[in-house]
Q: What sequence folds into this?
């Protein structure tokens, strides 16, 4: 990777190879990732990846061989990626060669550390391993901009100049949340419809619409929600409304929409409800 | 840095966890759950609503108690996992095997 272009904003930390130091390594990487603007979900993925990778090195590289050693963490930006490198002096070991997890997450005979590397591969955009100068090196890449098609969630701190804005964000790997802001009337119904349609086109069929900031809904808005709910259902997905304010809720109850579309109190509950639906 | 509360309810034992579950403390969760099963309580509701972070170390403990309960004809239900925990459950495919409920009341009340 060094050949491509230099890493910028590089930072380095070395921890002694003990589990109680892993949290420090995670905090270090999170601070660097926050500086380069990764969103909350990407931060969480980096947290998991560093946690899992350091734990594997300490448990299976050092402790299992009665070795003491350090883990060196280097992170920075390269091209369009946030890059995290972990270096250790344990016996040569390529974690990427471990396989067989995708088939059965409950497999009895999971290799030590198997879950961890599985997470790293799923949560990071690219992972490489090499053994060089007597050191293991695991290099993990996280794309700086998550999904160019979907607007980044608005910074909650900066609601100075608000026009009607609709944002969307992924809550989990399968669930996307769309957050309309303000009045859901004719002017923004079209925008919202377009955004929801884009999600459906991208196979994001489990959708949550967070109504927390909507204090008014026009009939065009109701019609659009029902239409999108139908389209999600046709694709074996669902559309769930969450944090609906009292005024909007009254309208839903008046026309009986609450009997058709599920409404939950929190986004968390919506995620769980959608997971239950998928199981059926 | 995790806190575990165990309460015996009418139909099940409620285990409420809060904090961050990682490799440095997952064994605490494991022994709490194992202890509950050893006491003969085989209907367990695990409330994860206050868990803001869980690594695979936590999943391993959950899978391990899931197996023990399966062998004992018991039942493990997860109540209101936070979005981040749900992300991990989904990625691992465990969401298709575990019973997950939107609220603690749903999990405790279901038969």
A:
């Amino acid at each position: 990777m060094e050949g491509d272009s230099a890493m910028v904003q590089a930072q380095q930390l070395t921890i002694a190879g003990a589990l109680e130091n892993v949290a420090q390594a995670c905090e270090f990487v999170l601070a660097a990732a926050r500086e380069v603007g990764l969103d909350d979900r990407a931060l969480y993925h980096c947290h998991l990846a560093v946690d899992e990778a350091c734990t594997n090195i300490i448990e299976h590289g050092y402790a299992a061989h009665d070795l003491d050693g350090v883990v060196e963490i280097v992170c920075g930006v390269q091209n369009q990626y946030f890059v995290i490198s972990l270096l250790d002096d344990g016996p040569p070991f390529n974690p990427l060669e471990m396989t067989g997890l995708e088939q059965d997450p409950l497999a009895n005979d999971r290799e030590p550390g198997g879950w961890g590397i599985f997470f790293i591969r799923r949560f990071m955009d690219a992972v490489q391993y090499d053994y060089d100068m007597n050191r293991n090196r695991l290099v993990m890449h996280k794309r700086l901009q998550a999904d160019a098609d979907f607007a980044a969630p608005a910074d909650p701190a900066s609601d100075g100049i608000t026009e009607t804005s609709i944002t969307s964000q992924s809550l989990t790997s399968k669930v996307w949340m769309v957050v309309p802001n303000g009045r859901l009337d004719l002017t923004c119904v079209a925008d919202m419809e377009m955004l929801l349609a884009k999600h459906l086109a991208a196979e994001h069929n489990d959708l949550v619409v967070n109504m927390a900031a909507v204090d008014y809904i026009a009939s065009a808005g109701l019609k659009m929600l029902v239409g999108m709910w139908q389209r999600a259902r046709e694709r074996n997905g669902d559309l769930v409304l969450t944090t609906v304010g009292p005024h909007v809720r009254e309208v839903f109850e008046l026309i009986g929409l609450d009997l058709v579309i599920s409404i939950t109190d929190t986004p968390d509950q919506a995620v769980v409800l959608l997971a239950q639906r998928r199981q059926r | 840095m995790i806190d575990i509360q165990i309460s015996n309810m009418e139909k099940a034992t409620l285990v409420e966890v809060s904090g961050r579950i990682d490799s440095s403390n997952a064994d605490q969760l494991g022994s709490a759950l194992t202890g509950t099963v050893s006491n003969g309580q085989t209907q367990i509701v695990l409330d994860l609503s206050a868990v803001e972070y869980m690594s695979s170390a936590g999943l391993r403990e959950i899978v391990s108690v899931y197996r023990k309960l399966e062998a004992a004809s018991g039942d493990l239900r997860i109540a209101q996992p936070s979005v981040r925990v749900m992300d991990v459950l989904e990625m691992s495919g465990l969401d298709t095997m575990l019973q997950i409920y939107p609220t603690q009341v749903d999990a405790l009340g279901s038969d």
User: Anything to note?
Assistant: Helices of chain B lie at 26-38, 56-71, 83-92, 104-109. Chain B has one domain: 2-109. Chain B touches chain A at residues 22-24, 49, 53, 55-57, 59-60, 63, 66-67, 80-84, 86-97, 100-103 (CB under 8 Å). Residues 7 and 14 of chain B are 5 Å apart (CA to CA).
